[in-house]
Amino acid sequence: MLEITGIDVFHGDLQAVWDVSLSIEGKGITTLIGSNGSGKSTVLSTIAGLLKPVKGSITFDGVRIDTMPAHKIVETGIAMVPEGRRLFREMTVLDNLEMGAITKRARQKKNETMAWVLDVFPILKERARQRADTLSGGEQQMLAIGRSLMSQPRLLLVDELSLGLAPVVVQKISHILDEINKTRGIGIFLVEQNVVMALELADTGHIIENGCIVGSGKASELLASDQVRQAYLGMDGE
Ligand SMILES: Nc1ncnc2c1ncn2[C@@H]1O[C@H](COP(=O)(O)OP(=O)(O)OP(=O)(O)O)[C@@H](O)[C@H]1O
Ligand SMILES: [Mg+2]
What we know:
The protein is of the alpha/beta class. It has helices at residues 40-47, 70-76, 93-100, 104-108, 110-120, 122-126, 137-149, 167-184, 195-201, 219-224, 226-231; strands spanning 2-11, 14-24, 29-33, 55-60, 63-64, 78-81, 155-159, 187-192, 204-209, 212-218.
C-alpha cells in the first residue's frame, strides 16, 4: 500500500533519517519502534508531507506522494494522529471531530462518518458537547484518532499511541485500532517507544536507531529476538 524507498530527511542542517526503506500493507498493522530521538516522528511527518525527503521516494498505491503538498496527501487517503494529540482544546468533542472532515469527499460523507466514529468510540458520544480539555488522556487519544478517521483515510499514521496513558487504556485503544484494521481494511502504521505494546499489536515491525533501520520482520519474531530483548526490553516502561 505504501512504499518508502531510501529516504534521507533533514531538520534544517541536521540529518535525522538515513536511507530508510520500508513498506506498509493495508492488511495488518505495521509498527516502527525505536528509542527517544531515533527518528520515528520524522519518518511519520515525511509520509504526511510535513517534511520533504532530500533523497528517495514515497509511493501510495503506486502514486508518488513525497512531491505533493500535505493537503494533497490527505486527499489520497492518508491521515496522521500526531504525537501529543494536538486537539483544539477549547472546542467541543463534536467540533473537534468536524474539523477532521477536511477533504471535499470527507465533508460530503461527514454525518455518516461521524456516526461510525461515535459508534467506534461510544465514550465520545457521551462526551459530545464537552470541551476537549475536560477529557481524560485516554479519551483525548480516542478523540485524536476519531478526528483523523473523519477524513476517511485508507492509511492511518499513529504517533505514540501509548504516551502518558495507563496500560489498560492503551490496551483498549489498541484493540479498537485492530478492529478498524480488520473490519474496515484501513492500514495502520504505528510509531512507538513502547516496544512491547507495539510488537504485540502489530503484524510487522521495523526498528530504527539513530535514523537508520536496523531490523525488520514479523512482530512476534522481533519481540522474541535477542536484538529487541537486549536493546529495548530493559528500557520498557520508562
Ligand atoms: N523540529 C526539529 N528541529 C531540529 N531537530 C529536530 C526537530 N525535530 C526532531 N529533531 C531531531 O531529529 C532527530 C529525530 O527526532 P524525532 O522526533 O523524529 O525522534 P522520535 O523517534 O520521534 O523521538 P521521540 O520518541 O522522542 O518522539 C532527533 O535528533 C531530534 O532532536
Ligand atoms: Mg516522536
